[in-house]
């Protein structure tokens, strides 16, 4: 398996406060589906921000797509960001743009002409089940529809990694399962998925999902499953029961 993300002794501190994340060491593998869980304030959003390059770590080493992020020059950051799609709990759609134009935005930013982007945008609208709502403004869409537009926008550039921060927090349980199926379909096409959620019920819906648990800014990884290769000391003393 190819590693796509590697953290080594990563810490993150906001300003002069205590560390929000401490001593994170793990490897994520290409094509896998990860759930990031933990109580409120555990550091889930902070860890995702490191992954989608909205924050730099205060210490430690992060490798992404086989490059060292800490020493990466600033002019290479946009190219890296294009390879990572992001979905938020509150959708973050541009309110005055239609569903079609929200989804087309990343392609326009990348310089694609209108004549070339119409087909891929229509295809992805169809894939998320919204082919009839392309002209609708976000405020006229339900929460589940808005989140499907947000997912379509996040994946229109075919990113290698999709990061989602509590993506089902603002939709009803049936829609949450449907959204998860979209993530699963993307994962089957090879996208590495990382979803932060504290919905245990949701996590049991994805059979091949692996769980990462944060507590107080530290990763709880008793079996060492997120390390490669696992250290023998990670496997010793683990009683196999979840805590
Ligand atoms: P979670 O997503 O698990 O709820 P967060 O990553 O949002 O956790 O927060 C982890 C810790 O970092 C919390 O103590 C929170 O108050 C702090 N924190 C998060 N964002 C900021 C910020 N921008 N400035 C200062 N402290 C922050």
UniProtKB/TrEMBL annotation:
<keyword id="KW-0131">Cell cycle</keyword>
<dbReference type="GO" id="GO:0051301">
    <property type="term" value="P:cell division"/>
</dbReference>
<protein>
    <recommendedName>
        <fullName>Cell division ATP-binding protein FtsE</fullName>
    </recommendedName>
</protein>
<dbReference type="Pfam" id="PF00005">
    <property type="entry name" value="ABC_tran"/>
</dbReference>
<keyword id="KW-1003">Cell membrane</keyword>
<comment type="similarity">
    <text>Belongs to the ABC transporter superfamily.</text>
</comment>
<dbReference type="InterPro" id="IPR003593">
    <property type="entry name" value="AAA+_ATPase"/>
</dbReference>
<dbReference type="InterPro" id="IPR015854">
    <property type="entry name" value="ABC_transpr_LolD-like"/>
</dbReference>
<keyword id="KW-0132">Cell division</keyword>
<comment type="function">
    <text>Part of the ABC transporter FtsEX involved in cellular division. Important for assembly or stability of the septal ring.</text>
</comment>
<comment type="subunit">
    <text>Homodimer. Forms a membrane-associated complex with FtsX.</text>
</comment>
<dbReference type="InterPro" id="IPR005286">
    <property type="entry name" value="Cell_div_FtsE"/>
</dbReference>
<dbReference type="InterPro" id="IPR017871">
    <property type="entry name" value="ABC_transporter-like_CS"/>
</dbReference>
<feature type="domain" description="ABC transporter">
    <location>
        <begin position="5"/>
        <end position="240"/>
    </location>
</feature>
<dbReference type="InterPro" id="IPR027417">
    <property type="entry name" value="P-loop_NTPase"/>
</dbReference>
<dbReference type="InterPro" id="IPR003439">
    <property type="entry name" value="ABC_transporter-like_ATP-bd"/>
</dbReference>
<feature type="compositionally biased region" description="Basic and acidic residues">
    <location>
        <begin position="233"/>
        <end position="243"/>
    </location>
</feature>
<feature type="region of interest" description="Disordered">
    <location>
        <begin position="223"/>
        <end position="243"/>
    </location>
</feature>
<keyword id="KW-0547">Nucleotide-binding</keyword>
<keyword id="KW-0472">Membrane</keyword>
<dbReference type="GO" id="GO:0005524">
    <property type="term" value="F:ATP binding"/>
</dbReference>
<keyword id="KW-0067">ATP-binding</keyword>
């Amino acid at each position: 398996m190819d590693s796509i993300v590697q953290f080594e002794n990563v810490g993150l501190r906001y300003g002069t406060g205590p560390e929000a994340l401490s001593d994170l060491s793990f490897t994520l593998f290409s094509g896998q589906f990860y759930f990031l869980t933990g109580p409120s304030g555990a550091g889930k959003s902070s860890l995702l921000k490191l992954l989608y390059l909205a924050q730099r770590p205060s210490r430690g080493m992060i490798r992404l797509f086989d490059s060292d992020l800490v020493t990466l020059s600033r002019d290479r950051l946009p190219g890296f960001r294009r390879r990572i799609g992001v979905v938020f709990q509150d959708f973050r759609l541009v309110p005055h743009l239609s569903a079609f134009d929200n989804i087309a935005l990343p392609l326009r930013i990348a310089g694609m002409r209108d004549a070339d982007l119409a087909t891929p945008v229509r295809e992805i609208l169809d894939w998320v089940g919204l082919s009839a709502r392309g002209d609708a403004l976000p405020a006229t869409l339900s929460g589940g529809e808005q989140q499907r537009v947000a997912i379509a926008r996040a994946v229109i550039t075919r990113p290698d990694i999709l990061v989602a921060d509590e993506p089902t927090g603002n939709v009803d349980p049936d829609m949450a399962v449907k959204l998860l199926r979209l993530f699963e379909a993307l994962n089957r096409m090879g996208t590495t998925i990382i979803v932060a959620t504290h919905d245990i019920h949701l996590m049991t819906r994805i059979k091949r999902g692996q769980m990462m648990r944060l507590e107080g800014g530290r990763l709880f990884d008793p079996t060492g499953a997120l390390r490669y290769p696992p250290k023998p000391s990670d496997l010793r003393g683990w009683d196999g029961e979840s805590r």
